[in-house]
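Dear all,

This email documents one entry for the complex benchmark we are building for the journal club exercise. For each entry we list the sequence lines for every component of the assembly. Then comes the predicted three-dimensional structure of the complex as a token string, followed by one or two observations. Please use this as the template for your own entries, and keep the labels exactly as they appear.
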Amino acid sequence: MAVMDEFQLHQPVPYNLHVDDDLLSTTKQKLRLARYPKELEDLDEEDWSHGSKVTEVKRLAEYWENGFDWRAQEAIINSTFKQYKVLVDIPSYGPQLIHFAHHPSSSPTATPLLFVGGWPGSFIEAQKLIQPLTDPPSTSDPAFHFIVASLPGFGPGDAPTKSPFGPLLAAHAFKILMVDTLGYKKFVTQGGDFGSLVTRNMAMLYPQHVRACHFNLMFCGPPPVYKNPLVFGRLVLSRFLYSSKEQQALVEAQAFYKSKIGYVQIQSTRPQTLGFGLGDSPVGLLGWFLEKYHDWMDLTHYKPSDDEILTFVMMHWMQGATPGLRYYKALAEEKGKIAGLKSFQTYCSTPTGYSQFPGEGISLPLDWITACTNLCWTKEHDRGGHFAAVEQPELLVQDLREWFGGETVRQAVA
Amino acid sequence: MSVKPFKVDISDAELIHLSKKLALTRLPISLNNAQWPETNGVTVRKMAEILSHWQNAYSWRDEEAKINASLPQYTTRISVKDFAPLDIHFVHSNPSSSDSKPTIPLLFIHGWPGSFIEVMKILPTLNDNGFNVVAPSLPGYGFSSYPDKAGFKHDHHAEVFHKLMHDVLGYKNGYVVQGGDWGHYIARCMGILYPEHCRAVHLNMFVMPEPPDLASKVEYTPFERVLLERADWFRNTQCAYGMIQSTKPLTLAIALHDSPLGMLAWMADKLFCWTDEYPWTPTEIITWTLLHYFPGPATGFDMYRQQPGNECLEDGLAAREYCKVPTAVSAFPKELEVRPASWCKKRVNLAQWVGHEDGGGHFAAWERPKVLAEEMAQFYRGVWQ
């Protein structure tokens, strides 16, 4: 990882992803020595409800060991993304290096757009968005200066050395990136997973800069009864007042909290304890992430290739898994009025667009969102999941063009 | 129903494989050598120390020899209603002296992340006091096999161990049981299911929700309040491991089956947090880790899926039915959940409740062997006719 002394504040230095030969060699040796448990015998071959299937992890691990060409993937990443690292100084925190890719559009009317993803993702999720957003096929389509920033600790984004570094600090860091480093005084944001928290915070902290938002995931719960009795009341009477789609969403949310939230709990309380294993065992990290790709992607409409999966895993394997896990603890420990999930208790008046992808684990009744956000535009899709930019890039691009190209945002950015 | 002598004998191949993996261990990278404090003590520095000991000084063969020398072990096959028969590994150690006192068969049941070796320190005192000590590996732990299908509950464990004592070892005049962690549920189930045979139960843990019918003005002693706070702390902040183990045991197992360091950290977390300043040596931590790593930790985790926390609290046999058999509770201050006497007597025929204010935690038999063994001996002798 880079040494901060070599950087000057706000001066981006071009960067090319390069994983050490040592790590690649050690990884291969570890894969050769991989040691697998037996499948849980009472579960069907296709039943992933209690964890990743050993046969599938094994299959991918064998490909990782024998066929996967990381250098080729690295080369693709470096030729696709114009990457930099820049030193920023975050108030009440200190210096931090930020990794990002910057793709200015040649269009004179382009709007700067910051894309922020989450866990277990990384900046490479934006791969299929760059071209259509910066250089649209038609002049009637809006164009964007496209920026994707890595959360510190994700991919090649240098991990923070102080605890905790959560969405609030990331929000400050990315504002400095956009405004003070790249000179974009007004811009729009696209956020999913942690990115949705980060960009929401940016909008609330810097409304003069973040002029409109787009999300493909919203974390808000129902508003408390005293804040919005009507919305709360609807929830209480959901059996009668919710549409079948909303009822289904509630059921799924409850199932999520009942049986799928273990990873959040362990990562928010013991990220390092878990990280020892996930940073030491490539098959362990592969299994941990594969479960999420399996559960959160709409696999009936998009199947990631083996190369894609392993490249996504490499993004966290590079820094030994723990820095990504720490985000959950940082989220739980952040202090302040809009820290963590308290962010949704303050109304965000920034014009917001929201794309609903059915495979997203948590899909909410819209009135929960409108209770805390100035939701101006939404679209429902019949395909796509959590990793929208990867799974359904055309749909996401279309949504971004429609929302950000519309009159509301045009006026907001002007 | 044959009983075969057993010695722990991990293959050379397995040991070589382990040492190759240890040599490749990748410790977390600390940028700028940042050392992050961890509330559970499982820091990079600490794990690096233990890892270094593991790579350079630790000898599994030495520890294996000690286990075999101090714990006479056997295996047998036991049938279970609705499941295929299980191979059960167990310690069986009889009193050596020919005393006029009748001997009392005693079953000691471990939990997670423990193992059969937890009986090691109390065994000599118990044998000396005239107890035939039996300490099995739970199905899915150590060298016992694992059920072939889902739905194996504490009552099934109870059935296996009753058969071990009564049918396999021929203790027809009854036996006594001691349990902590999973063992405490299983012991309660044995008291409920086999009251003619399981004549007394001793527990160093007691999990239960607050009884709805407590006397309206219950005055807790300061010690009881310590215990109540500890249980709240445990339930509210320390149960992530249970959540992940009961919902995604296989995902976790894939990582910890492959990473010795991973299993070490997962183990050390509990050894540090659940005990009362017990001075764990690197050797102890590594041995406890290997007793999960070698057989594979997956089935130990899966037990949480078979009977998750809310089931233990509400629907499980021990939660639903009253245990009429005389039961003793030993309350150590750093145990995760041991309820006041006024609560326990709602679920069991509480013969005694002993508070140990001077210290001790979850692994009582390892941390406070003398105190525990003497209390057990006295209690059981008092109840045994």
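Observations: Residues 5 and 74 of chain B are 4 Å apart (CA to CA). Chain B is about 45% helix and 15% strand.
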